[in-house]
Amino acid sequence: EGPFVYLSLVGNVANSDGLIASLWKEYGKADTRWLYLDPTIVSVELLTVVLDGLLALLLIYAIVKEKYYRHFIQISLCVCELYGCWMTFCPEWLVGSPNLNTNSWMYFWVYLVFFNGVWVLIPGLLLWQSWLELKKMHHKGTYVGKKSW
């Protein structure tokens, strides 16, 4: 999303050249908000690039080094991603989806549903993983006498 934010802030994707711009132009056939400066989209993506990018790097470090805060970061990152997906599409749905190409099977099912669904499915699965790990840690702590109640 970094190149998208950059292209949107210095101009727009529709008038940009290059490989990255062509990828966003292709996605723009399914969702035209990605072609021009849509304040909601650019705001969400700006936050995604900065905050989620830093959280992702910190999460990689926490996983590799087996840090105690790994699941806190993982949950935070997943919630940020799910919130970003919600804020990308909910405002559009509320106004009748005028910028979404729902007439084309490929643009609707492949670009909008499948590709965006991945950004919901993976954080959902990682949240489930963190839930199970935290539950396991809690039960382990309960059985070794860590709970004083």
Automatic annotation (TrEMBL):
It is a multi-pass membrane protein. The keyword Lyase does not apply. The chain crosses the membrane at residues 41-64, 71-89, 109-128. Keywords: Membrane, Transmembrane, Transmembrane helix. It comes from the Eukaryota. Residues 1-127 form the EXPERA domain. It is found in: Membrane. GO terms for molecular function: cholestenol delta-isomerase activity. This is EBP like. It comes from Cavia porcellus (Guinea pig).
